[in-house]
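[job 4471] stage=fold_predict status=RUNNING
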Amino acid sequence: KEFARVDGIYNYGYMPTEAHAIIKSEWTSECQLSNEKVSRGISLLSQDIKGLVTHKVSCPLDELRSQEYMYIYPRGMTHAQYEDWYLAFYFDLRPFTRAESMYNIINTMNILILLVSVSLVFANDANRLIVHPVERMIKRVESIRDNP
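[job 4471] inference complete, writing structure tokens
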């Protein structure tokens, strides 16, 4: 909490002490990016942090789905620099993905309720405007047929 600035323009809160220890440690964690490329670094999600990290993630490419992380890397580099080394950041989007999933479920339920209510109204109108008058007309025709 010592690093949290309340008056800062980009105040995103504080960094837990467990994360400070991870950042200060050696960057030896490796992730296989492709057949030839390996990334080396650290994962702030590699340890349980009470109230913040409940699912440990060492390598986001192996353990998270593609919509659950965001990959940020320098865009203005040459191909040689890209092949050599560069800093890259993976951001955990799981809370946002979970919220988006809940919104989609709520949206689906609303559409389901709307479709069911519209079908009930349509069925009621069809009965009132078509079925019941046709039934009355059939009854009249049958009564005329039976007793001309």
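[job 4471] summary: The mean pLDDT is 85.
[job 4471] exit 0
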